[in-house]
Amino acid sequence: MWKEIVAFAGAGAALYAAQQSELINEKAAKILAGIGGTTFVFYLANRLYFSGGKCYETERLDGKYVIITGANTGIGKETAAELARRGATVIMACRNTEKAEAAKAEIIADYGIGRPTAFTKNILNSKIKKIITPVKSQQLIIEKLDLSSFKSIREFVQRVRDRGQKIDILINNAGVMFCPYMQTADGFEMQVGTNHLGHFLLTELLLPEMNRSSKRTRVIILSSEAHLQTK
């Protein structure tokens, strides 16, 4: 009798364990499916949005002169490299010329003549691969420009004029953010003075030179959605 009871209890325990195992496996499968789905969504978001915009244009910029403010890091540096690969001469207008020199060296190391990555790094498709060329050192010109100082801006523009430098494209890229309260050399709050007033003066002073250079000049201004968070 006891053997039958023990056997029955054992069978019941086994059945219960099997049912629980199925429930656990089902829950685990749902969790794994959820993780997989979430991972896939983040992958797509990274590819389509967070990785930034992509340029599929195949136009060359040979003979074009481009000024990029803040070209020593981030978007400015990558823009300088990409435009130089398409044949443009880029004036890297930076506050810190030592960092600009380091950025120039990195661009040459990645995309210079004889570099193994010159035709492989950051290539979106075969059409773009056909139109890019290695970057030459003389294509990257470093100039001192402190956008928080009207004096520095005027001196920069004067050097451009003195060289008789034509300007086809101006890219206002530099900017500061999250800095403690401080003032520019001219008494303006640092972010407003650098990001807005500095670029406004620079553009205003360069427009006559740009209009004399070409009928197809461009002024490109980078901005951020961070202003939507202000109160």
Automatic annotation (TrEMBL):
SUPFAM superfamilies referenced in this protein's UniProt entry, alphabetically: NAD(P)-binding Rossmann-fold domains
GO molecular function: oxidoreductase activity
Keyword Kinase part of the UniProt annotation: no
InterPro entries xrefs: NAD(P)-bd_dom_sf, SDR_fam
Domain of life the protein comes from: Eukaryota
Keywords noted in UniProt: Oxidoreductase
Pfam families, sorted: adh_short (PF00106)
Annotated protein name in UniProt: Dehydrogenase/reductase SDR family member 11
